[in-house]
Structures are given as C-alpha cells and as structure tokens.
C-alpha cells in the first residue's frame, strides 16, 4: 500500500514554480465548458448528477444539480471536489488505497474522500481546481468527471 | 413487531400519493433561467457576483461565480439564499428590522442573514426555493436577485 | 453607511484579468518577510502577538505565536486574516461600518470579522493573501499588520 | 453563598502558587528551533511539507508551509499534531493499531489520526506539545517530524 501511494505521488504533476511567480487559474468560462462536457456525457448515459467545479483554493466556481438527484449528492460532490483539489489527486486513489489495505486509516485524514468521482484539474502541471460528481454509482460518477476534464 | 413495521411501510406510499397533495418545485431549467436573467442584469451594470439558487429544502440547485468576485461571496450568497428560503422572506426584512431596532438580536437567530440580496421564490403562493446574490453592495446584490426572480 | 461601504468597494483594487490567465501568488519566503517586518514592529513596541499569513484561497502559509499571548488569539488572528482575504478588505472596514451603524447586521455575514487587525495583501492589483494579527488592542494589532504589509 | 465563593476565590491563587507545582512548556524559540531542524531534513531530502508545532493545550505555536505543498496538508499537519498531543503518543501508534486490527474502530475516536507524521514532544517526562508534518508520504512525514524532535 505504501508503495502504491508513493507511486501515485511521483506521478502527480509537480508544482511548476513560475519564474515571475504567477500561476494559471480557472475562470467561469472554463468551469462552464467543463460542466457542459460532463453534462453531455451524463445525458448520453441517462445519468442524473450534481457537478461541482472548484478553484485552486477549494472555493466554488459553479455547481449544477440535474433533476431527480438525491439532495445528499450536493455535499458529496462538493466533498469529492474538495478532496481532489486539497490533495492534488483523484478521490479514487484514496478509494483504491483503502480497499487494498482493508482498513480505515484514510478515514482519519481531514478532507479526504475515498469514493471515486473527484478529479483535480491541472494546467501546465499546476493545479487550478477540481471537479466533483455525485448521483449515480461512484464508477459512473468518475466517468462523468473524466468527461468533464476532457472538455477543459 | 416486524409485521407492524411491514404494515406501516405498506401504508406509507399512500400518504405520498394522496390526491392533490403535491407541491410545485423548481427544476434545473428554472434555476438556469433565473440565473440567466440575474446574470444579464449584472453584466448590463458591470457588476460581478455569485448567484446561488436553492430548492425548497435549502439545497443547491445551481451556483455560478463570475470572474474576479471575492471568494467570501460564495458563502455569503449561499447564506443569503438559505436565510430567504428558511424564513420565507427577503433578507432585507431582517436588515430593516435590525436597523430599526438598532441592536443585534437578529444576529442570534440561526440561519438569519440581515444583508440584502436573498429572496424567496414562490409559485402559486407556495415557496419553491430562493436566490442569493453577493459580490457588489448589498443594495446592488438585491437588484440582481430581483432581476433573477423576474426571469422566473 | 451604504455610501461608506460603496466608497470602500470602489477603492478596492480591481481584479486584473491577466491576458494569459495567470495570477501572482505569495510564497513562503514572502510570508516570512512579512512576518519578520511585523515581528520587528511588535518587539519594538513590546507587544506580543500571533501573526498569521494566508494565501489567496485562505489557507495558512505561516503562523507564529509570540510568548505569553492568550491562546484565544490563535483563532482570532486566523479569523481576521480569513475575513481580509475572503472580502478583499481590511477588517477595520467592517469595524467602522458596524460602529457607524450602531447595529449588528455585519455579524450575520459569514466569515466577516469586524475587529481591526486583518489586512488583505495585493500584488499588481490582485489579491494574493492576507495577514491577521491578534494579541494586544485591535488598534495595535492593526499597526503591526500594516508594518507587516510594508515589509512585503 | 456569596461568602463561600469569596473564600474559595481567595484560596484559589494558593493552588497556582503551590511550591514545585509548575510544568515545563514550549516557547516560540523552541518551536522555531524544532521547525528549523525539521526543515533542514526536509530540504536535504527534497521534500516539501507543512510543519506545525502545538503547545500542551493543542494550540498553535508556529506553522510553516513550504512552496508547492498541497493545501490539504495544512489541516492534515494540524490534525496529526493535535492527535499526538491529545493522546500523548505518535500518530503511528494508531496507524499500526488500525493495520493490525484491520478495521475502522479508531476512525470513530475523536481527534485521533492514524497516519504517521505526528509526534508528541516531552520534557523531563512531561508532555509540552507536539509536531505535525504533512506533504510527502506518511513515512517520510514521520522522518521529518523525528528530525524536528531531535533538534529540540
């Protein structure tokens, strides 16, 4: 398990220290384009979900709840997105680690969510925000989140 | 005991299906139409804001943060909208009451926000949700929120 | 009061939309330089305080508590700094507004602190973080915070 | 009744002044020396981390976030340090216990973190505070925390 986490950390894009000390960021237009791509995939599959987009500080840029989604999915989508941007990694990494270990250690890590459906968003190797999806199965949530990133 | 619970479970759906016992509600399309109307007014005035739309349970249907808005406005817009739907009244009602009284009593009221910019949304006299706006002055936030309602 | 808030908003540096969609940010060296300048002033006056520096998302870059400071000042310094970066304005703006109004409206604004000692930090007109100071009187806290900014 | 309280109040200072009834404590200089030793090890290894030092009441003495560290590590470092001082033991003790047990019981223990990287700090057998480190793998976080203690 330790090896698994280590490998994933090594794969994570490194923080690019811009010479002029600036960093890229998401704007609302980006968030809407990502949400539109995720929504298109969700509709094509007939899956209704909440889609949340956060900035690099973990603050909401946009959120959209499709009709009929359980109200609990609002906070789940937000928590998945928060976990993804706070830890610069997909929530599935924590899910896989908990499954591999068969224990609950990661449940004691503040802000970590170990359910697929949260993905960090990078630009030029720098984290700029995240997407969190909730409403169907966690694997399906993850597919929609990935479709959103593909539309960035 | 098991039988009793079973019987009660079988009776439960009947309550939900009682004739005429329905309530109107907002869907995502409504939320998007209201947000679009509010956004149009905001852009016309050159005001950048967060616009949050909640359902009748106080849960997010949609949120959108325009570029350059202070991050604090995310929670403020949410809190204004929550106050409006929790108390079925504009947040300006609490603002006026606090000004008239000159004291801080209302600040002890759970979920009450006494800053203009939150409005309840009604349909056929029934509350269906709310809008919360934050980003410019509270009076301007209120103008944008009203423009949103007008587009419903 | 409305006029006062409006004027302050107009004075606040506008968000500079960089053409290449990047923004400046604080690093640890900046935070340490700001903290050192604030500490120098605090020591010169014989005032013991907590000094917190946050990034543009409201997350801690550094914190330092001088000896003998009440433990409550840790959270106060953090809250002042959070208010300053969340609302892009000094906490004194909220303090003055509450005094002018004689009421408690601003106490219903999430994350707003109306006690001097929190200041936003800007670079090229863009918010990059904040400083929060607590330990002596709020006016003295404010003097130390300003000394910190001057050292940026 | 008033007299009784008065008498008790008059007696109170005597408890505090009882001979030898003192406890050792960390000051800011200690915290900075511990942080410097941890930082030196972190830099030697090329590991970027958050380093938090708490006093014996679990309140922050100092915190420092190196550049490029995920924002989630701020709360993780604080939580690890809190766990270490609240339970007077390394967070690795909880980690090992959860692994050995294969269950999630410890995740229900308030303030317990079961991820290596938090260490209590003792002086003359008395707990005086703790260090919490987060940013790399938990084993690496633990190495940095130990280097900090060694510098005390």
UniProtKB/TrEMBL annotation, chains A, B, C, D:
Transmembrane segments: none
Protein name: Heme-binding protein
Stored SUPFAM superfamilies: GlcG-like
Matches recorded under InterPro entries: GlcG_carb_metab_protein, PduO/GlcC-like, PduO/GlcC-like_sf
Keywords of this entry: Signal
Gene3D superfamilies: Haem-degrading domain (3.30.450.150)
Tagged with keyword Iron: no
Protein origin, superkingdom: Bacteria
Taxonomic classification: Bacteria, Pseudomonadati, Bacteroidota, Cytophagia, Cytophagales
Species this protein is from: Algoriphagus namhaensis
Signal peptide: 1-18
């Amino acid at each position: 398990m330790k090896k698994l986490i280590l490998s994933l950390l090594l794969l994570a894009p490194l923080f690019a220290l811009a010479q002029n000390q600036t960093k890229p960021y998401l704007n609302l237009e980006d968030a809407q384009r990502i949400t539109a791509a995720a929504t298109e995939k969700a509709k094509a599959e007939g899956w209704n979900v909440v889609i949340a987009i956060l900035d690099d500080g973990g603050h909401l840029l946009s959120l959209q709840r499709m009709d009929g989604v359980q109200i609990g999915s609002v906070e789940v989508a937000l928590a998945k997105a928060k976990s993804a941007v706070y830890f610069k990694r997909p929530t599935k990494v924590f899910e896989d680690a908990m499954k591999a270990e068969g224990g609950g250690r990661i449940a004691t890590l503040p802000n970590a969510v170990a359910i697929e459906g949260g993905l960090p968003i990078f630009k030029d190797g720098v984290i700029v925000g995240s997407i969190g999806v909730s409403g169907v199965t966690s694997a399906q949530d993850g597919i929609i989140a990935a479709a959103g990133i593909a539309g960035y």
